[in-house]
Amino acid sequence: MKIKISEIEDLTLALLDENAEAIEERVEYGDAGTELRGLIRSLLPEASRLAVCSASRADIDEVKEMEGVIAEHYGDGQAVVKLPEDYLRLIYFRMSDWPRGVTEPLAADGDSLALRLGRSRRMFGRRATPAVAVAHSGQGRSLRVLGTIEGSTVAEAQYVPVPQVENGYIELPARLMHPVAARLAEMVNLITTH
Fold it and tell me: pTM to 2 decimals?
């Protein structure tokens, strides 16, 4: 949803116990130390990314579909899917051969992924269980898919894109407006009180 940046600014100022009209008046009369709106606008992209990444899945009411993605299989129940450039957070991913999808990727450098890729016979059943991990390479980010068979395709793939600021608006899930404003207020407080 496109949300007016001025609405987020006003909400952030309210959380900071600042009166928007008083701030405008102080800026107009040369008190540069009260230019909080400029600070809020500069922090907005980072605060939005942090809010999206830390939000519960229930609070993310708008997602984007990965369209036209192709799984490149490379044997042993694994495949790779290139992620869109604007990818920020995975919401749901399912291959055509999976009975259910996954909502949480494994850490690319974590023990869970290392165990899944192990060659132990006892771990074979676990390797066949659906899982994904976000990988970074010279070609960009991709989704490492585990527990899939050759010939399967991407059945469903949803994600949240990086929030984009454009023409006085930011593209953001609607329910995250208040968490973004709270994160902004926290960041502004840290900057202005130190």
Answer: 0.81
